[in-house]
Amino acid sequence: MCEELKYIDYDGALEVYRKTVAASGGGLQGVKDEGGIRKVLDFVQNDLFYSTFVEKLIYLVFGLCTGHYFEDSPKWKQPLHMVVLYTK
């Protein structure tokens, strides 16, 4: 159903994260759980579980916010930046 969507990949997610930390004045750079990030980014593409655009966005934000996968940056900032990129 959502084949026309452009999904963000792991490298794209890390780039958004780096830019977010830099824009917020710096801080720790790093990933606590690469597998967790990859899991969220891969699973969001499964139309059997998340068939609509809104369901995919909700899962993406919730998964990245609750997973605590990144070393620094407010927990809501990088997932929301990824959502903006995801919607382009």
What is the strand and helix layout of this fold?
Layout: H1 10-23, H2 34-43, H3 53-67, H4 77-86
Helix pairs in contact: 1-4, 2-3, 3-4
What does this structure look like?
The structure is a single chain. This protein has helices at about 10-25, 35-45, 55-65, 75-85. With about 90 residues, the protein is mostly helical. It has one domain. The chain starts with 9 loop residues before the first helix and ends with a helix.
Features:
mainly alpha, 4 helices, single chain
Summary, kept brief:
The protein is mainly α and 88 residues long. The chain has helices spanning 10-23, 34-43, 53-67, 77-86.
Mean pLDDT: 81
Strand % is under 5%
Helix fraction, binned, reads 55-70%
Outline the biggest β-sheet: none
Give the topology string: H per helix, E per strand. Answer: HHHH
Cα-to-Cα separation, first versus last residue: 18 Å
Structure annotation, total helices: 4
Give the oligomer, counting copies of the same chain as homo and different chains as hetero: single chain
Total domain count: 1
Unreliable stretches covering 5 or more consecutive residues: none
Based on CA inertia axes, which overall geometry fits?
A: globular
Q: Report the count of strand segments.
A: 0
Radius of gyration of CA atoms, rounded to a whole number: 13 Å
Question: Which structural class matches the secondary elements?
Answer: mainly alpha
